[in-house]
Design a protein that fits this description.
Blueprint lengths: L8 H12 L4 H18 L1 H7 L12 H4 L5 H6 L6 H12 L5 E4 L11 E4 L4 H13 L3 E21 L8 E2 L1 E6 L2 E2 L7 E5 L17 E2 L9 E19 L8 E6 L4 E3 L3 E8 L4 H11 L2 E7 L5 H6 L1 H4 L1 E6 L3 E6 L1
Parallel strand pairs: 1-2, 1-13
Antiparallel strand pairs: 3-9, 3-10, 3-12, 4-8, 5-6, 5-9, 7-9, 10-11, 13-15, 14-15
Length: 329
């Protein structure tokens, strides 16, 4: 995105000015003309004439604030500044101890906060933490069972056979022989395409974490398990979100020379979410050194956080009209 070029623009502008600014008269006249033209084209009321309504730009010039006629505090608290977020910035600086980290879902004016803030969409880590909280707020999951005649298998795959505009995710993947689940073993080797780095999340016995493609996918993406030796299997069960079940999925086994399909009877059912999902999500955040949750009342799970804060295991520490700051107990 072009906004990432902004830090380089002052140096580019100086380089252009050095070309125009010569000792001779006319180049200097041209340089002054360019400067004036640039100032006119950058004036907020002029910019509106040639840019889209949603374009990022300076909307006005708060000259009273720039000259300190209006105080910084008053300006930031107004609708022209940060509005209600200004109050939450102050509360966060006051309530959160130094060295502790706050998690939030959406854009927040972090420049006015002296504490570390993890914004969900800023990083893969933030995405994973948001995904954990959203998973915990669900009241049911989709359980897909693939049942087949018992066979001896060394390596097995679940392969998506169709292109999708959604992502594919699996919270937990389990293998069975009869009524007995195969115990997960250190010799198992797990991989996936794409996002092989998170494949362990589908095998960690934690229902609030999951492996996901994190992107729309082409056919032939897969999640694979190498048992490290022969294993007797007759069923596979995957837990997933209702809208991320992977569409048509084929079970495949390694023949020694390549991957081969084999028939499996597929059954799909909604099952209640495991108990204490909310608390498990908070424990995961805490294990990742996140001890505070800051959210806007317009955020998706805001109502659930407020109504079920005891189930989540968090305590309200500060609030403004639009924001809430909770401590993770």
């Amino acid at each position: 995105m072009t906004r990432y070029l902004i830090p380089a623009l002052p140096f580019i502008a100086l380089a252009l000015a050095m070309v125009l600014w010569r000792r001779r008269l006319w180049p200097r006249v041209i340089a002054v003309g360019v400067l004036i033209t640039h100032a006119i084209l950058s004036w907020p009321s002029v910019v509106t004439l040639y840019c889209g309504a949603g374009a990022w730009r300076i909307l006005d010039l708060p000259w009273r604030t720039a000259l300190r006629i209006e105080s910084e505090e008053h300006f930031l608290a107004s609708d022209r500044g940060l509005g209600d977020a200004a109050g939450m910035c102050k509360l966060t600086n006051k309530i959160v101890p130094e060295g502790q980290t706050v998690f939030t879902f959406a854009t927040f004016p972090t420049a006015y906060v002296d504490r570390d803030i993890i914004v969900a969409w800023d990083s893969a880590f933030g995405d994973l933490m948001q995904d954990t909280l959203e998973t915990a707020a669900r009241d049911h999951v989709v359980e897909k069972e693939y049942r087949f005649a018992e066979r001896q298998i060394t390596k097995i795959r679940l392969t998506a056979m169709e292109k999708s505009i959604d992502s594919w995710g699996i919270n937990e993947l389990r293998f069975y022989r009869g009524a007995d689940e195969l115990r997960r073993d250190a010799k198992w080797r797990l991989t996936a395409r794409p996002n092989r780095w998170d494949v362990q999340l589908a095998f960690d016995n934690n229902p609030v974490t999951r492996w996901s493609t994190w992107q729309p996918y082409e056919a032939r993406v897969y999640l694979e398990v190498d048992f490290g030796g022969p294993a007797r299997v007759d069923a596979i069960v995957s837990d997933c979100w209702p809208d991320e079940s992977g569409g048509r999925v084929q079970v495949q086994e390694w023949s020694g020379n390549g991957w081969e399909n084999f028939p499996a009877a597929v059954s799909v059912r909604d099952v209640p979410a495991p108990a204490r999902m909310r608390r498990a999500a908070i424990e995961l955040l805490k294990s990742n050194n996140l001890h505070w949750l800051l959210f806007n009342l317009d955020d998706g799970n805001a109502k659930d956080f407020g109504l079920n804060h005891a189930q989540w295991g968090m305590t309200l520490a500060g609030s403004t009209q639009q924001y809430r700051l909770y401590h993770l107990d």
